[in-house]
Known about the structure:
The structure is a single chain. With about 180 residues, the protein is α/β, with parallel strands linked by helices. It has a single domain (about 25-180), classed as Rossmann fold (3-Layer(aba) Sandwich). It has six helices and seven strands; from the N terminus they run αβαβαβαβααβββ. It has helices spanning about 25-40, 55-60, 75-85, 100-110, 130, 135-140, and strands at about 45-50, 65-70, 95, 115-120, 140-155, 165-175, 175-180. Strand 6 and strand 7 (about 175-180) form a beta hairpin. The longest helix is centred in the first third of the chain and has 15 residues, at about 25-40. The protein starts with about 25 loop residues before the first helix and ends with a strand.
Amino acid sequence: MHIIAGQYKGRKIKTVAGLASRPTLGRVRESLFDILRPRLGEAVFADLYAGTGSIGLEALSQGAQHVTFIESDRTVGKILGDNVGILDPEGKRTRIITAGAVPAVMNLSREVRRFDIVFMDPPYNSAAIADWTEDTQLREMMAPDGLLILQHEKKRKVPSPWAGCRWLRDRSYGKTTLSFYTMGE
Length: 185
């Protein structure tokens, strides 16, 4: 796997062997960043359920000001740290939080920094989507015109509103769907 565009285009990203991690496919990442490109310049970006960091690293490469990665698995988090260290060795534009997404978001919602874009890719066969249905902590960590993107299985229906945000649209790519939500009107 590699970075597809931007400042770090072509740089390789370490991945986890087997099914412990499900990296976002290149064509989904490419389509996602085609949509996000106008919003990325100087954006503060959060990558929840980050895995080895392919989405957040792509955001960093394509102009995001700062990326916060949240990953609960310590083994995967080590590889994430290696990947981030290659692109941001001094840690000036990145932050890695090794914790579950729910407690990490609770802590982030109390901070001053607000996120312009929040990307979530929870494990497909988990209850993680339901964890956020009524939760408004995500809203509290987002900028007023923030964008929330949820990657999920196409067959899985996500309620609207979700996580306190208003649904904008879905984009499907094979078995994967990206659902876009906003805090704004």
